[in-house]
Amino acid sequence: MAVVALTLIIAFSNLILGKLIVGPEREKLWGIGRKIEIWGNMLLLAAALTALIVIMIRGTDSGNIKWLLLFAVIISFSFEALIQWRFLKGSKEYIVSLLLLLIGAAYVIICL
Predict the structure, then answer these.
(1) Which long-range contacts (CB under 8 A, 24 or more apart) does 98-105 make?
(2) pTM value?
(3) ∠ CA 6-34-16 to the nearest 5 degrees?
(4) What is residue 48's predicted lDDT score, i.e. its pLDDT?
(5) Closest Cα partner for 74 from 104, 49, 54, 53?
(6) Ramachandran area for residue 51 (φ above 0: left; ψ -120 to 50: alpha; else beta)
(7) What is the pLDDT of residues 16-65, one digit of tens each?
């Protein structure tokens, strides 16, 4: 239930912060930046799923899953912000990603 709430909070925050900081016309990655983002996200997903499987095999502990979720949020949004900063010159999309990182990390630390 907490993961669903985290997903909803981040989704709505993304919409609101995106309109406030970037404006109605948000830029999208294209070309090599988009390819790097896709491959990076696939690698991050594979690493997170592998870690989750290892945690479940060894025994489920809520503290371990909390740390896994915290690291997944931090690494995912940091990677997204880095790619946006590097490939979207003149855009403030990376600021939205960094703010979402803070919101997601705070939610995981406080609510889980």
Answers:
(1) 99/13, 99/17, 99/21, 100/10, 100/13, 100/14, 100/17, 101/73, 101/74, 101/77, 103/9, 103/10, 103/13, 104/6, 104/9, 104/10, 104/73, 104/77, 105/70, 105/73, 105/74
(2) 0.86
(3) 35
(4) 86
(5) 104
(6) alpha
(7) 999 999 888 877 888 898 899 999 999 999 998 898 888 888 877 777 78
Q: Take residue 108 and report the two structure tokens written for it.
A: 């995981």
The tokens describing 97, both together, are 């990603």
Residue 38, both tokens: 């896709």
